[in-house]
Design goal:
This protein is α/β, with parallel strands linked by helices. 27% of the residues lie in helices and 18% in strands. The strands form six sheets. It has an eight-stranded parallel beta sheet. The mean pLDDT is 97. The chain binds 1-O-alpha-D-glucopyranosyl-D-fructose (TEU) and calcium ion.
Length: 557
């Protein structure tokens, strides 16, 4: 297992629209990020993953790009961006940009040209198919509801969009498209960028015939024809050879539907593709039949089985990314912890898991202060196209507003997109204007100013975990082995590396649970816990309090 800086790093994801507004227009911006870099340096993160900040009409909040080499006007200028990365590098913080190249905005110059006429040189930058109006070329359903096809009246053909109709899919079969992407990547790397998070990168190769899923009525998920497609590894190896191999980068692919075996192909060190991928299996642990809007009670043994599969599966080949939330997922303390009476304990317990498993941890903005889901009363208070489209479509089919709002409260992406809560002043110190989306009303109790100043806060617990990862190589390189696999309350595992050994015991429930310690761990000493523990040495019988996390350590020298 080769030592690499990106294995040892902790990454912090910033969703710029909601992070910090420096000019009072209610929208987060790049100068707002620069203002908060000392906060990130204090936390101790090594890398920032910045969600898209390129020019965009914001149909999907920047994941619909109209100019890859220009900064979104609302976020600032290229000079603001250059100042931001300089200030990051001064603090030893690297920057990953979000590479969104499965699709562009329909306002991108390439698409404006492409849709002009069938013979335009940019026509096959995108995926066009003929078809009678009202008879889409296949039955695939969009991630944002409805068909993945939009009919273009002028040239009387359909174009493919796996996401919104304003996000036409690029045609990666066209080597001109690939060259445009590589040129753009080099342009950003020459600006000093340290790597990329690659948006739905495993969707760029489609089965050429674009076949329908079935002959039955209605739209269906066509992932079998566009996830991990026939040429995806050819394209990534080409991207690595032409671009990435020439720079010292961290690359992480966002790969919905990826398996462990796929992940070895994407992230195996001898594969020369990516460093790691985001798997979605754990994010599906509480989905009915793979549908995020149909909730399923999850149990700890299922949760642990998925983690165990990925820890053991990538033990010697490839590398794990470790996350429980991001800008697309509900807040982890609400989803997997307890955001009421045990919010602080359970936030720290989940953080302990993410920083003691084997892989690179990703902290999503606000997670480090225990920000929670939100429950707006009215659909008009929501901004996310995914939620709004689902709401409108399901309403038409008769689902009640009450049921739909309950689904959005539980699964909606805006849970993660309410403004960062900096202090207890109006709008949580995020803006002096009207925020583009309402602030979570609990900001007076939950905010960074309160957390940084409190030695027992979630923020300072994260800070300790990050420091421990830097001090003890076993956190990064230690072999994972699980104990008590059948427990529905405790997640227990060890990490061993050369002469160092960790024993991690996590209580995932709100009851106290006893744990009998095997003799071979009786010489371990307490390293960190989210409760006061006066005895440093481990006891043969431990009682774990609600959501208690304890990490014991032994070194043979
Ligand atoms: O998300 C890809 C993706 O699979 C999403 O549909 C996600 O699984 C879903 O929203 C969960 O509810 C990426 C970006 O992270 C997302 O913000 C974009 O909307 C999407 O791609 C299109 O670029
Ligand atoms: Ca602003």
């Amino acid at each position: 297992m080769k030592r690499q800086w990106w294995k040892e790093a902790v990454v912090y994801q910033i969703y710029p629209r909601s992070f910090n507004d420096s000019n009072g227009d209610g929208i987060g911006d790049l100068n707002g990020i620069t203002e908060k870099l000392d906060y990130l340096a204090e936390l101790g993160v090594d890398v920032v993953w910045l969600s898209p900040c390129y020019q965009s009409p914001n149909d999907d909040n920047g994941y619909d790009i109209s100019d890859y080499r220009a900064i979104m006007k609302e976020f600032g200028t290229l000079e603001d961006w250059q100042r931001m990365i300089q200030e990051m590098h001064k603090r030893g913080i690297k920057l990953l940009m979000d590479l969104v190249v499965n699709h562009t905005s329909d306002e991108h110059q390439w698409f404006i040209e492409s849709r002009k006429d069938k013979n335009n040189p940019y026509r096959d930058y995108y995926i066009w198919r003929s078809g009678e109006k009202g008879e889409e070329p296949n039955d695939w359903v969009s991630y944002f509801s409805g068909s993945t096809w939009e009919y273009d009246e002028d040239t009387e053909e359909y174009y493919l969009h796996l996401f919104s109709r304003k996000q036409p899919d690029l045609n990666w079969e066209n080597e001109k498209v690939r060259q445009e992407v590589y040129d753009m990547m080099i342009w950003w790397l020459e600006q000093g960028v340290d790597g990329f998070r690659m948006d739905v990168i495993n969707m760029i190769s489609k089965v050429p015939e674009l076949p329908s899923v079935s002959q039955e009525k209605g739209y269906k998920f066509g992932g079998q024809y566009f996830l991990n497609g026939p040429k995806v590894h050819d394209y990534l190896r080409e991207m690595n050879e032409v671009v990435l191999s020439k720079y010292d980068t961290l690359t992480v692919g966002e790969t919905p539907g990826v398996t462990v075996e796929d992940a070895k192909l994407y992230s195996g060190e001898d594969r020369h593709e990516l460093n790691m991928v985001f798997q979605f299996e754990l994010m599906g642990v509480d989905h009915q039949k793979g549908n995020k809007w149909d909730y399923k009670e999850w149990c700890l043994t299922d949760f642990k089985a998925i983690i165990r599969k990925w820890q053991l599966g990538l033990a010697d080949e490839g590398w794990n990314s470790l996350y429980l939330n991001n800008h697309d997922q509900p807040r982890q303390v609400s989803r997997f912890g307890n955001d009421k009476e045990y919010r602080v304990e359970s936030a720290k317990m989940l953080a302990t898991m993410l920083h003691t498993l084997k892989g690179t941890p990703y902290i999503y903005q606000g997670e480090e202060i225990g920000m929670t889901n939100v429950a707006f009363k009215n659909i008009n208070e929501y901004q996310d196209i995914e939620s709004i489209n689902m709401y409108n479509e399901a309403s038409k089919q008769g689902t009640s507003e009450e049921e739909l709002l309950a689904k959005i409260h539980q699964r909606g992406r805006d849970n993660a997109r309410t403004p960062m809560q900096w202090d207890d002043s109006e709008h949580a110190g995020f803006t002096t204007g009207q925020p583009w989306i309402k602030v979570n009303p609990n900001y007076e109790q939950i905010n960074a100013m309160k957390s940084v100043g409190d030695k027992n806060s979630i923020f300072n617990y994260y800070k300790q975990l990050i420091q421990l990862r830097k001090k003890y190589p076993v956190f990064v390189y230690g072999e994972f082995m699980e104990l008590l696999e059948e427990s529905e309350e405790l997640f227990v595992y060890t990490r061993t590396f050369n002469d160092q050994d960790l024993l991690v015991i996590l209580n995932f429930c709100e009851k106290s649970i006893d744990f009998c310690v095997d003799d071979k761990y009786l010489d371990h000493k307490l390293l960190i816990s989210n409760y006061e523990r006066n005895k440093l040495s481990i006891q043969s019988k431990l009682s774990l309090r609600p959501y208690e996390a304890t990490v014991y350590y032994k070194s043979n020298n």
